[in-house]
Amino acid sequence: MKKAWWKEAVVYQIYPRSFMDSNGDGIGDLNGITEKLDYLKELGIDVIWLSPVYQSPNDDNGYDISDYQAIMTEFGTMEDYDRMLARAHELGIKIMMDLVVNHTSDEHAWFVESRKSVDNPYRDFYIWRKGKEDGKEPNNWGSCFSGSAWKYDEQTDMYFLHLFSKKQPDLNWDNPKVRDHVFDMMNWWCEKGIDGFRMDVISLISKPEGLPDGIPGENGYADSGCANGPHVHEYLQEMNRKVLSKYDLITVGEAAGVTLEEAKKYANADGSELNMVFQFEHVSGSEHEKTHYGKWDGHKMPLPEWKANLSKWQTGLSHEAWNSLYLSNHDQPRSVSRYGNDSEEYRERSAKLLATCLHMMQGTPYVYQGEELGMCNAYFDNLEDYRDIESINAYHELTEQCGVSHEEMMGYLKRISRDNARTPMQWDDSKNAGFTTGTPWLKVNSNYPEVNAKAQVNDPDSVFSYYKKLIRLRHENEIIVYGDYELLEAESEETFIYKRTYENEHLMVLCNFTDHEVSVTDAVMGQIPDGAEKLIANYADDMGQTLRPYEAKVYRY
Ligand code: TEU
Ligand code: CA
Questions:
Q1: 0.90 exceeded by the pTM?
Q2: What are the sequence ranges of the domains in the chain?
């Protein structure tokens, strides 16, 4: 298997709005990030994925860009950006920018021009259509943020497409001028010395010919109906030729709706498109569960289905493409709340369990800010405490149009709202967790006195120190990066056990996903020779075939 630095790297995602506020306005900023780079150096990560810092009206917290080559006023200046980039490089940390080019903000100059008239030079930068004879939208697509995916624009008596918010009009990637403008902007950032791109919903950029009606009632149909469109690989290969191939970058495509077969094209080993993709199957609900309201009333997969899905990606891409490894990001609830156990008794233990299970797999691991501390969901009780447009729009749509009760909907939000991952980083036990001296834009999780970086960075038994060890082990052991993967005890509803093999070496990864003791089969234990080295574990001692609640341990032999 071909080796590469981005296969051996560990990436840390920063959501700038919630990472560190340096000027007391309650909003994280670039100088705040610069202040905390030493903390990330200590953790040992190699790359920072920076969620968008470009100029934006913040309808979707920066994922609605009004100027790709200017810094969001609230986050600071281009000089602040350059200082952060230089300091990161001094520390040997690379910067991966978030590239959001499926859509812009409706305040972007291109859209301001485009909507002026049907013959404006920028008209075809976006997707405009006449409404249907009966006055209905051009097709039945739903937006991912509730309502129709079309917004009527009086000025020219036409509708424009927005797969996300009304203020995020989709770019028309079939227009070569759009592609040239995007590639020019990407080259501009590469010439500044950045080290890669995370590409927002890149699987959606090529819309199906004729924009046909979708499957009625599929929540956010546009998201699934547009995925892996007719020209997406052609456009990415053009992007690779005109930008990516000219630099030594790390690239990951956020590929909503991607399948294993499609992923082999996006992340193929010949390097003609991207290095890897974020797929969504393992963070979605069970394939066998029909939900009424998309993610809101869905549940996580039962363990056997989850293990089978992750294993499918491990063996399915191995030697042909490359996996990203993640459980958390700014769109997902906190992993320890969703896949672990965030009770006082088991929060730390299960956070280490999840970290072991993910970081011992083949692929590039992504650590989402606060995941290394075992931060968990905030479970806000009041709608007024939420800020996320997806959550707020869904609240109104489901309670006002679908008959969902307030109490039911608040239960959905507490469990799976994106705001659970966006509460401010918990630095210490001072007011607002040391994130800001002002009023935070989003409330801090009330458990910050117990869960914060200051309490962990010097504690060898902390979640932080455990992540630090996992990252170091990946840097020191090729088997963790390149070893082949094999799932064991596939049917178990309690354990997640897999083996890695590389040249003549093996790792046995044993995880108990329950709050009670379980016993590992003789078939598994029989493979581990006496005296096998314990690489890492989340209990100090070892009970052999018995795994205690949320126990994780890795043997090398
Ligand atoms: O997310 C796209 C996407 O797939 C999410 O909308 C996801 O499906 C949903 O949030 C899960 O409930 C990207 C960004 O990561 C997200 O923050 C943006 O809101 C979205 O695109 C639009 O840019
Ligand atoms: Ca600030």
A1: yes
A2: 7-104+176-380+421-470, 109-161, 381-420, 484-556
Mean pLDDT for 27-36 is 98
Q: Is residue 137 within 8 Å of 211, Cβ to Cβ?
A: no
| Strand 505-512 to 518-519 pairing | unpaired
Residue ranges with strand state E in 154-301: 158-161, 196-199, 250-254, 276-278
The number of CA neighbours under 13 Å toward the Cβ of 319 is: 5
Query: What's the 61 CA to ligand 2 centre distance in angstroms?
Result: 14
Write a three-state SS string for 340-356.
Answer: CCCCCCCHHHHHHHHHH
CATH number listed for the domain at residues 7-104+176-380+421-470: 3.20.20.80
pLDDT band at 221 (very low <50, low <70, confident <90, very high): low
Regarding the domain with residue range 109-161, which homologous superfamily does it belong to in the CATH classification? Oligo-1,6-glucosidase; Domain 2 (3.90.400.10)
In single-letter form, the type of residue at position 16 comes to P
- Which residue in 304, 300, 299, 285 sits closest to 493, CA to CA? 304
Give the ipTM: 0.95
Any idea which residue has 């509730």 for tokens? 146
Q: Which helix (H) or strand (E) holds 94?
A: strand 94-99
Q: Which of 29, 200, 262, 390 is catalytic?
A: 200
Could you tell me the two tokens for 12?
A: 């840390």
| Ligand 1 center to 331 CA (angstroms) | 6
Atom 8 of ligand 1, residue of closest alpha carbon: 256
CATH of 484-556 given 2.40.110.10, 2.60.40.1180, 2.130.10.10, 3.40.1640.10: 2.60.40.1180
Relative to the CA of 389, which ligand 1 atom is closest? 19
At 177, which amino acid appears?
K
